[in-house]
Design goal:
mainly alpha, 12 helices
């Protein structure tokens, strides 16, 4: 375990240095979350304001954008691994005296650091458009931790996908099919009471809804509709626990699967 952690830290450093030496990666990593915050706050927020929803929608919105962005950011893991396999870098790693899981540990940890940067940028942008944290520092930190934990678990799913498909472009397309419905059929951008029956049921038990609700609760952000009913599903009544349970399920399933697929992919 110690060897895997030590070797993984070296691989993570390599991935972070790559971001530093390729400025385009850093620019798009920081500009994309700014664009999301401004776009949704002023496009969707403008529509809500026009209907009398007020500025509360912007506070409601930011946690949803946080969740969507870190989950979409997990696709970097899959695309980067597919690119390394395509270029033969993984085979070079296999020739070195290092732990077999170090590449995956380093890759996923580097993406946690990337997500921290994204959340900082998005948080500062959110403050500019009117978002506020209305709880204590420990509660706010718990909200950010749950977002990062869930994104880390998703990154192992993306790592597995990245080693199943032949190119980074296919990773993005495959990930889009999985992630798009999860992030949009949820409470990320609209309250669940606005959804029709079947979609509402799916959204109530959607893990993205849970991590979004957990973040909102810990940030103290209100529902834009003060008369909206309280959530009735167990998942949204216990969003922190439900988020941790889903993160644990993803890690239990996809850490072994990704490690196994790494050995097969690297030996092709």
């Amino acid at each position: 375990m110690r060897t895997a952690v030590n070797d993984g830290s070296v691989v993570a450093r390599r991935n972070l240095i790559k971001i530093k030496r390729v400025p385009d990666l850093l620019v798009f990593t920081t500009l994309q979350p700014i664009m999301f915050v401004l776009l949704f706050a002023y496009v969707f927020g403008g529509a809500i304001d026009a209907e009398g929803g007020g500025a509360a929608y912007r506070e409601f919105l930011i946690a949803g954008i946080f969740a969507q962005t870190v989950v979409f950011g997990a696709t970097i893991t899959g695309a980067a691994l597919a690119d390394d396999i395509k270029k033969g870098i993984i085979d070079r790693f296999r020739s070195l005296p290092m732990s077999g899981s170090a590449v995956l540990v380093g890759r996923t940890f580097a993406d946690v650091v990337n997500n921290v940067l994204v959340l900082v940028v998005m948080g500062l942008t959110g403050l500019l458009v009117g978002w506020r944290i209305r709880t204590s520092v420990p509660e706010a930190l718990l909200g950010f931790f749950l977002l990062l934990l869930f994104a880390y678990a998703i990154s192992w799913l993306m790592a597995w996908i990245g080693m199943l498909v032949p190119t980074p472009e296919v990773v993005n397309n495959a990930a889009f099919i999985v992630i798009f419905p999860l992030t949009f059929v949820a409470n990320t951008f609209v309250p669940l009471d606005s959804l029709p029956g079947p979609l509402k049921t799916f959204a109530e038990w959607n893990p993205v809804s849970a991590v979004t609700q957990a973040a909102r609760d810990n940030f103290g952000n209100p529902d834009p509709n003060p008369l909206a009913p309280e959530p009735t599903s167990w998942a949204l009544q216990n969003p922190e626990l439900y988020t941790v349970l889903w993160a644990g399920v993803f890690l239990l399933i996809f850490v072994p699967l990704a490690t196994w697929q790494y050995r097969r992919s690297a030996s092709r």
